[in-house]
Write a structure and sequence with these properties.
Blueprint lengths: L4 H39 L4 H24 L5 E4 L16 E5 L5 H6 L9 E3 L9 H7 L2 E3 L4 H15 L6 E4 L18 H9 L2 E8 L1 H4 L12 E6 L3 E2 L6 H16 L1
Parallel strand pairs: 1-7, 2-5, 2-6, 3-4
Antiparallel strand pairs: 6-7, 6-8
Length: 262
């Protein structure tokens, strides 16, 4: 779409609309209601099976509410091959799943948590000082890491394995460690440390190829570029227990995602 005055207004309008709908739907259902359900699961944690059932229900509610929010965004043209939220993990036979994706936009996480229930991962430690977000992130199971700190990153990875994957809680990682530059035609190399984690945790890896989300909101963009087509493709799972070399496993997953982007 040409960069006319009308297009500039369209960018501003849909960006404000997106933020406002997040503030209403996201706050009430994606955050407050889910927080109450997670607190209920925590309260009955001595009863492991009941607590797990309630937590899974909360994860589905959160995912459904964010999916509903995205359906309210006419500017979002997203094609996917993801299964329905209800019973999503039945296709894998386990919830000990490490979802590995390339990273093109700040919207990537938001899109993925609307299709995959219960996702957790590493998060910037600064978010845990936010009085609004901190309770949810702590109870949901996000792991804080300090930006630029190798020591914090390594500790975060160990916690991902111990507190999440080994307890059969799905994890999302962007294996490039950072977003690519806007318009970058390929993707950066994946960090091997994530795949050592997968092997140690005996996890199932599900690669995800993310395409063109940087056209929608790329690095350096403050406003949306509406009506750009994007695609999320879930690729065949890879059993990390079949590997004992994290480099070899990394290269297999990188090759799958790269081929899907070609």
């Amino acid at each position: 779409m040409p960069k006319t005055l009308l297009y500039s207004f369209s960018r501003l309008f849909w960006s404000i609309y997106f933020v406002l709908t997040i503030g209403v739907i996201g706050l009430i259902f994606g955050y407050l209601l889910t927080l109450v359900i997670y607190l209920a699961a925590l309260a009955i944690s001595p009863f492991e099976n009941a607590s797990r059932t309630v937590r899974h229900f909360g994860e589905d509610v959160q995912c459904q509410s964010i999916r509903f929010l995205l359906r309210m965004q006419p500017w979002l043209l997203c094609q996917t091959n993801f299964k329905p939220i209800q019973g999503f993990y039945e296709q894998f036979g386990t919830r000990r799943v490490l979802f590995v994706a390339n990273h093109r936009s700040n919207l990537d996480t938001f899109l993925l948590i609307s299709y995959i229930p219960g996702l957790r991962g590493l998060a910037k430690s600064s978010l845990f000082y936010n009085i609004f977000f901190a309770p949810f992130m702590l109870i949901a199971g996000f792991i804080p890491v300090s930006k630029g700190s190798t020591e914090s990153f390594v500790k975060g990875l160990k916690k991902l394995g111990r507190k999440l994957l080994k307890r059969d809680r799905p994890v999302l990682i962007f294996a490039e460690n950072t977003r690519c530059d806007k318009g970058f035609p390929s993707m950066n190399k994946f960090a091997a440390a994530f795949f050592a984690l997968a092997i140690d945790s005996e996890a199932l890896i599900v690669p995800i190829a993310i395409e063109r989300t940087d056209n929608l909101l790329g690095r350096g963009d403050l406003l949306l570029n509406p009506f750009e087509k994007v695609r999320l493709t879930m690729l065949p799972p890879v059993d990390a227990t079949k590997f004992n070399d994290s480099i070899a496993l990394r290269d297999v997953i990188w090759g799958q995602v790269k081929a899907a982007l070609a």
